[in-house]
TrEMBL record:
Organism: Saprolegnia parasitica (strain CBS 223.65)
InterPro entries: Methyltransf_16, SAM-dependent_MTases_sf
Lineage of the species this protein comes from: Eukaryota, Sar, Stramenopiles, Oomycota, Saprolegniomycetes
Protein name (database record): FAM86 N-terminal domain-containing protein
Source species, domain of life: Eukaryota
């Protein structure tokens, strides 16, 4: 009886060790994350499931999204292929409150598998949806998920790599060209996009660059922030003249949805 050969995760561990050594030696942290994203996309098995929202009895529009994603949490290095709890919760909110949401240019930040953007694409086929993420493996998954929605009419969808903060200025220009104007995003959505205090300033710099004067940033989180992170969000709202409102909160066991608008 021959011993089993190395599996995909064994190979992944070896590649991670090599890449981590490379990043420590030359400081290429972003290259490390990009390479790891491709590896997880290649090595982790995905499932395809249907996510449905709205019922005829509730009066809300019915949405049905086919989604390919990693069913188990792949870990901190590559979380974009996993459907975090905030995404389905935000989808429920958008379906139930669709009539009150802006339409037109819609952008999903840190889109992951693209669930929230795909739901809105069915809610308003006349809108334009831009899915953004810094991980090319995630963008590849979103493009695949877009092609699986042939059973429903949906909006025109685009994918765009996007780094938050000033380093993403060129990518923001590319988004503006698609949207035919600066600060033309009517609705920005994000689910579990704040995972550390250090990224708050980068996130809100990006929002300020993209959000239309009458636009809305809708953010859902499935975990509590520490006091420093909450304070940093308030500082950014003051700096960029944004109003912050919590519209639902069931933390720590559920989710919290916040809305940000320009003052």
């Amino acid at each position: 009886m021959h011993p089993e050969g190395p599996g995909p995760m064994d190979e992944l561990d070896r590649e991670l060790e090599t890449l981590q050594h490379k990043a420590m030696s030359d400081g290429s942290d972003e290259d490390l994350l990009t390479d790891v994203g491709f590896m997880f996309d290649d090595c982790l098995e995905k499932v395809t499931c249907e996510f449905t929202y709205g019922t005829s009895s509730s009066g809300a529009p019915r949405v049905s999204v086919m989604l390919s994603y990693v069913q188990d949490n792949p870990g901190f290095v590559q979380s974009g292929h996993y459907v975090w709890p905030a995404a389905p919760a935000l989808c429920e909110y958008m379906v139930s409150n669709f009539e009150s949401l802006p339409r037109g240019n819609v952008l999903e930040l840190g889109a992951g598998c693209g669930l929230a953007g795909l739901v809105f694409a069915q809610l308003d086929p006349a809108s334009r949806i831009i899915f953004t993420d810094h991980d090319p493996g995630v963008l590849k998954t979103i493009e695949h998920n877009v092609t699986m929605q042939t059973h429903r009419a949906q909006a025109t969808c685009h994918t765009q790599s996007l780094r938050w903060g000033p380093e993403g200025a060129n990518e923001i220009e590319a988004i503006e060209r698609v949207q035919s104007g600066q600060r033309a995003t009517d609705l920005i959505v994000g689910t579990d996009v704040i995972y550390a205090r250090e990224i708050v300033s980068l996130l809100f710099w990006t929002i300020d660059q993209l959000l239309a004067s009458s636009g809305l940033f809708l953010m859902c989180s499935s975990f509590c922030y520490d006091d420093e992170t909450e304070a940093e969000i308030d500082v950014m709202c003051t700096q960029y003249k944004l109003s912050r409102r919590i519209i639902s909160c069931a933390l720590p066991t559920g989710t919290r949805i916040q809305v940000f608008t320009r003052q």
